[in-house]
């Protein structure tokens, strides 16, 4: 197997592990366990907590002491073993702590997989900018494949989704030790301060008004990023409680319907350079925010019969909502920060969106849904999605008014996916 195919397999399994349970865990939580929504929000906060705690620590370990591919393999094997134990959780509290430990192992592997791919491609004289995107897209394909497997095997509300994920994780962990060696690339300077070692010097960016404002909006929008991952599949499956929809395609194959979002994501990536060149970073980010309003609003009014087109359209605009913000935001950081702290600044951007933003969104949404939009075991999904749409609209309007950034066509030349 050549180098590119070996990395394609790594990328495929990396996100297959996540796709096997991330979208469908809501069905397991609400339908199978019948636990509350407030506690469910805490489950998705583990992704944010892990994103804050682990990537910097594992980055230091890979930089200084251990080959990246070996650390990657160890984390996946540990994470897989922990996932095997997850179905034994009998209470929301025990479920939280087990999945938190699994995410402490999984979340840093996302960054490590990119680092490993870059290192191997460079060592084999490949053009990373040209070769990496077609490899990375197989990660999204892996995510979609796992969603389809979970749904078509009848496990979208079953504990088996965690066993599927665990098996893939352990296989990838073992496979990692067969990858080309990725030894520490740069030793940390011995007299560097702890703050510098952890990349925390990037926090001085909060002293710049424009960047601080951008990071604040990143956190607020980051709160919306996981909402449809948390509740989308459970929302579609809940149509089974309405007699005329109980046997509909949407209810039976809700996870496959949700996978349209990931398919859309792969397609919108191709459109990003055009939009950035034509409209600039701020406008592309505004387009993303408008797409989030549509994502939630279309779900609010969609149903499995006459409103099916709204559900499908919501899944299609997800690709624009997700990709346009993440890539244009990353480009803004790339073009406005000091090269000396650029990597740390990118980490800070991800921390604000996938870390603090995810925690904010998961915890507050769980409380709001449980307190205001749930009666017994019945959720008022129309009002829930409408509430989310209004939230996204407020962020979009505030961003348009307060965030000032002049379009510069040269910015686009620096973008790489």
Reported for the largest beta sheet, the result is: 2 strands, antiparallel
CATH-wise, what's the superfamily of the largest domain?
MFS general substrate transporter like domains
Strand order of the largest sheet: 1-2
- Overall mean pLDDT: 86
Counting helices, strands and paired strands, the structural category is: mainly alpha
- The helix-strand sequence is HHHHHHHHHHHHHHHHEEH
Compute the number of structural domains. 2
N/C terminus separation: 25 Å
Segments where pLDDT lies below 50 for 5+ residues? none
- How many strands appear in the DSSP assignment? 2
CATH topology of the largest domain: Growth Hormone, Chain: A
Strand content: under 5%
The CATH class of the largest domain is Mainly Alpha
Proportion in helices: over 70%
Roughly how many Å is the radius of gyration?
Answer: 21 Å
Total of helices: 17
- CATH architecture of the largest domain, by name, is Up-down Bundle
Shape: globular
Description of the structure:
The longest helix is centred in the first third of the chain and has 32 residues. The protein has a two-stranded antiparallel ribbon with strand order 1-2. It has 17 helices and 2 strands. It is mainly alpha-helical. It folds into 2 domains: 180 residues, MFS general substrate transporter like domains (Growth Hormone, Chain: A, Up-down Bundle), CATH 1.20.1250.20; 217 residues, MFS general substrate transporter like domains (Growth Hormone, Chain: A). 50% of the residues are buried.
């Amino acid at each position: 197997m050549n180098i590119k195919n070996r990395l394609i397999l790594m990328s495929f399994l990396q996100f297959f592990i996540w796709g096997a349970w991330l979208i469908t865990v809501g069905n397991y939580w609400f339908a199978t366990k019948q636990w509350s929504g407030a506690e469910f929000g805490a489950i998705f906060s583990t992704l944010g907590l892990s994103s804050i705690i682990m990537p910097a620590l594992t980055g230091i370990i890979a930089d200084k002491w251990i080959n990246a591919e070996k650390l990657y393999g160890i984390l996946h094997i540990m994470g897989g073993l922990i996932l095997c134990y997850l179905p034994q959780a009998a209470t929301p509290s025990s479920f939280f702590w087990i999945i938190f430990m699994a995410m402490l192992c999984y979340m840093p592997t996302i960054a490590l997989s990119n680092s490993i791919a870059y290192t191997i491609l460079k060592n084999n004289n490949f053009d990373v900018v040209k070769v990496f995107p077609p490899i990375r897209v197989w990660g999204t394909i892996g995510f979609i494949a796992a969603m389809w497997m979970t749904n078509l095997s009848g496990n979208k509300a079953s504990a088996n989704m965690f066993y599927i994920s665990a098996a893939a994780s352990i296989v990838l962990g073992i496979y990692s030790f067969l990858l080309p060696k990725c030894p520490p690339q740069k030793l940390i300077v011995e007299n560097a301060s702890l703050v510098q070692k952890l990349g925390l010097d990037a926090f001085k960016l909060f002293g710049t008004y424009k960047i601080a404002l951008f990071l604040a909006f990143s956190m607020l929008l980051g709160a919306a990023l996981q909402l449809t991952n948390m509740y989308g599949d459970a929302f579609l499956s809940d149509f089974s409680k309405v007699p005329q929809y109980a046997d509909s395609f949407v209810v039976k194959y809700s996870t496959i319907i949700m996978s349209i979002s990931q398919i859309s994501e792969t397609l919108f990536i191709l459109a990003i350079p055009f939009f950035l060149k034509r409209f600039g970073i701020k406008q592309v980010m505004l387009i993303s925010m408008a797409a989030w309003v549509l994502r939630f609003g279309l779900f609010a009014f969609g149903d499995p019969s006459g409103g099916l087109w709204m559900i499908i359209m919501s899944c299609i605009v997800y690709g624009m909502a997700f990709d346009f913000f993440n890539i244009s935001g990353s480009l803004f950081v790339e073009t406005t920060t000091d090269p000396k702290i650029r990597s740390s600044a990118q980490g800070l951007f991800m921390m604000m969106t996938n870390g603090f933003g995810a925690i904010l969104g998961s915890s507050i949404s769980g409380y709001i849904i449980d307190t205001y939009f749930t009666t017994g075991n019945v959720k008022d999904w129309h009002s829930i999605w409408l509430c989310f749409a209004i939230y996204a609209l407020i962020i979009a309007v505030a961003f348009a008014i307060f965030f000032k950034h002049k379009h510069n066509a040269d910015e686009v030349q620096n973008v790489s996916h």
